Amino acid sequence: MGKAFLLNLNLNLISGICSLASVSHFLIKRCAKVVKSKSKCVGYDFKTNLKEENKGMKKILSLIMCLAFVVVMLAACGQQAAPAAETKATEAAKPAETTKEAPKEETKPAAPAAKKAIGYFKAAADDYYKAGWDVFKALADKEGWDTQEVLADGSDAKMLSAVEDFITQKKDAIVCVQTTAAAGGECAKKAKEAGVPFFSLTHQPQVTKGFEPTGASCYDWVTDGTYAGKSAIEHNVKNVIIIEGVQGQGTAAAQTVGFLQAYKDAGKQVKVVFTGYGQWFAQGGQKAMDEAIAAVGAKGFDGLYVHNDEMLDGVLNSMKNAGLDPSKYWIGASNGKEKSWKWVKDGLVTMDVNQTPTLEADLVFQMIKAQFEGKPYKHYVYSILKPFTKDNMDGLVPYVKDDYLAGRDAKKFIFDINDPAVKEWSFQ
Questions:
Q1: Which string of DSSP letters, residue by residue, matches 62-116?
Q2: CA dihedral defined by 167, 168, 171, 174, rounded to 10 degrees?
Q3: Is 389 helix (H, G, I), strand (E, B) or coil?
Q4: What span, in angstroms and rounded, lies between the C-alpha atoms of 90 and 266?
Q5: What's the confidence (pLDDT) of residue 20?
Q6: Nearest-angstrom CA–CA distance, 327 and 320
Q7: Which architecture characterizes domain 221-354 according to CATH?
Q8: Residue 207 CB partners (closer than 8 Å, separation 6+)
Q9: Residue 200, helix vs strand vs coil
Q10: pLDDT reading at 336 higher than 50
């Protein structure tokens, strides 16, 4: 039903009303004629009856007019209601409009976190330092860290310059295998003042109170020397040649202190007939041993304490060149590298201490990882020492990077910094 239908309905109603009005008019005229005709009849009061007839007709007309008014009003209401109904019908007929969503902003992938940058200083091109670096670098690469290695030639000045450069470059952490204890302490102070975490490796720095390094991993070098001293006592060594690494480095002095402390604790006497410095290399070790043999002669000593395996390699060559049989002497060393395993097994060397830079560097790696993650950790630790002879060679820690990492993955040895075997220490 639309507007056209309602219009037709209204027109029909008006037409009907007009027809009723015409009929009414006709009836009134007709009634008038009837009255006139009746007036001719005897006893009929024309005026009175005409008056009554008019009243009846007026009632009929009034009724017709009221009916017409009602019809018109209804029609008008229908016309007003129709648009609303029509609007609803039209709206119902229209397809529902889809609400448009506000355009979504494209989610951009989060920017990758910046790589942690590590400055790693090594005092010299020593194979011990290299072995530690190789493992540290491999573990750092797995974490996505960017590691920068700087190598010096034992110069304190170069060490200080390298650490200052690391600070300027805003490294996230610095690892330092120091040249000397004094220079190590100065570098630790500079890093602390700059707010850069500083980790000492292998050697303990000589620090100013309040400027200690953030962390440090090394061996208890005194205990290392004590193991050798105890073995020498067992073999009744009286006159010993000692070949140290670098004079004044701290590590060397500590090993010698431990060796002599073992005799003191046992109430025994020993004479150090010669002290040489092999700079931690085979060539230096050979040179120092040549000097020792020249100074005291083949019978001037019954024992040798050599502070690392590389220098020991040179010492063995020197003895061979001098026509001396190493197996006739007590020989103790420190490092416990793979080649020394064979020397000990074959009886050329009496004992060694498995003291690896691979494990030592691994512990510093674990410290730095915990530092970056905001987790608690042991800040100053001794790595694990293991003295061995040909009768006790189980569980030795490798020097070679790939062998170390494979053994680490297989848990063939202790490497976790949280293990009770990894002892803590503190700066006095």
A1: HHHHHHHHHHHHHHHHHHHHHHHHHHHHHHHHSPPPPPPPPPPPP-PPPPPPPPP
A2: -30
A3: strand
A4: 112
A5: 46
A6: 11
A7: 3-Layer(aba) Sandwich (3.40)
A8: 184, 185, 188, 189, 213, 427
A9: strand
A10: yes
Structural tokens at position 373:
């993650």
**CA trace torsion 15, 18, 23, 24 (10° rounding):** 150
The rounded distance, in Å, linking the Cα atoms of 300 and 303 is 10
Q: CA of 252: how far to CAs of 94, 116, 247, in Å?
A: 95, 34, 7
For 99-112, the pLDDT digits (tens) are: 455 555 555 655 56
Cα-based distances in Å from 189 to 20, 210, 381, 423: 121, 9, 20, 25
Strand segments (E) across 280-385: 303-306, 330-333, 352-354, 380-382
Asked if 176 and 187 count as a contact pair (C-beta separation under 8 A), the reply is yes
Q: Which residues are registered as beta bridge partners of 220?
A: none
Q: Any idea where the domains of the chain sit in the sequence?
A: 117-219+358-386+399-424, 221-354
Q: What is the dihedral of CA 395, 397, 398, 404, to 10 degrees?
A: 100
**Dihedral (C-alpha) 369, 370, 371, 375: value to the nearest 10 degrees?**
160
pLDDT: which is higher, 25 or 379: 379
Q: Which fold has domain 117-219+358-386+399-424?
A: Rossmann fold (3.40.50)
State pTM to two decimals.
Answer: 0.68
Pair of tokens at residue 111: 């920017």
Count of positions (residues) in the chain: 428
Residues 6+ apart with CB under 8 A from 227: 258, 351, 353, 385, 387
Q: Tell me the pLDDT tens digit for each residue of 227-249.
A: 999 999 999 999 999 999 988 77
How far apart CA 42 and CA 422 sit, in angstroms, is 152
Q: CA 162, CA 171: separation in Å to the nearest integer?
A: 12
